[in-house]
Hints:
- By secondary structure, the chain is α/β, with parallel strands linked by helices.
- It is 45% helix and 21% strand.
Amino acid sequence: MPAPISIILPTLNAEASLPACLDSLMPGLEAGLIRELVISDGGSDDHTRDIAEGAGANVLTGAPGRAKQLIAGAEAARGDWLLFLHADTVLSRDWAERVAGHLADRPDKAAVFTLAYRSDAPMAKVIAARANRRARWLALPYGDQGLLVSRKLYDAVGGYDDVPLLEDVRLVQAIGRKRLAFLSAEARTSAAKYERDGWRKRSWANAWLITRYLMGASPETLARAYR
């Protein structure tokens, strides 16, 4: 029987972050969980493709746009389970153990990881804790927490929508609170945008973005403001 999980990473000029992300996948490979690695690239002009091919990935190239890339990656994947990750995310070493337990005990549910930021800034833990509370209270984790979902459930809810922003939120909304679990293993994501914009400023901008979306603003409208 083949390993259950296809890992899908959308990339665009990710040469700086991709090696650490790929290294963090090794526990899953050692545990026999990973069937394949699918890199869905949006036209990188750096060494992203070389790194991906060196890791033995199935590399797809298409138009840039995270939703488009995720959709393409899912279409190419052959696993019974799909694990969507961002290229600047590093999983904690216990992820394979937690995922194996989830597959065995809750096969009817999707799952996300606990968010952490790779930063020594005092605000990093504060913002991550706030984001994790929001994700649990509203059942609305973002894509930087990863998403593990069975192919059956992914297809049943229609997969990702091809929208310019918040494709991750729309998919977990379709999955719904009752079919979503939270794993204690961490998705340690880049803090570059927070360090560039300021932790509080970026946090409040993200909070306002999701508030506008929940109040009815379209992803297209929000994408124009987000840029």
